[in-house]
Specification:
10 helices, 229 residues, mainly alpha, single chain
Amino acid sequence: MLRAQKKISRRVIKEDTLVTSYFKAQTWYDENKRRVNVAGGIVLAVAIGLWFYSNNVRQNNDRATTDFARVFSFYDNGQYLIAINGIPERNIIGLQSIVDNYGGTTAGNIAKFYLANCYYNTQEYDKALKYFEDFSGSTPLLTNSAVAGIAACYEAKGDFVKAAENYEKSALKNADDPNAPDNLLNAGRDYMRAGEKDRAVELLKRLKRDYPTSLAARDVDRYIAEAGA
């Protein structure tokens, strides 16, 4: 006589499934634990590395900010060589050293802009150009000013086409930039020097139209007359 089969409860089935899954997982881990441990070690190493990097960046930015604040007064007073080199015997770090050591930080990047200005004012135009081009600020005013700085360097080096192009780029990038009228005038003037009179007149007329009350607009008619337009 056949005995009635014992009914298996859902709970037992569920537990049996869990046990089976556990042993499958355990087997997979035993077979791959070296790979898992290596991957886990990598994840942990990356996490630790990111923490140290973030902490280091923050500390470096704080140092750069402190050093920049101490040397800025020399820049502001037109003492550009001291601003560049600092005063080591007084533990005043110069802009060049700040940029070399902390150029990747926010404060170090701002120092790069002022270092470029220092080199421009000491007539080291190639160095000024290098740091104006390396500057990557997020503040529109400084970004536009850096482009105008590039233009000024090319102008000083006698490359009037590149000077005009960069003055124009700076002027048209942000119409609300208080330096936009001057940059339009400079662009027009340099295009004239480069022999591109039509482009020069176009920008000068734009200056007269868009910024009629600016100081730069006062000279527009004279430059347009010189261009023969």
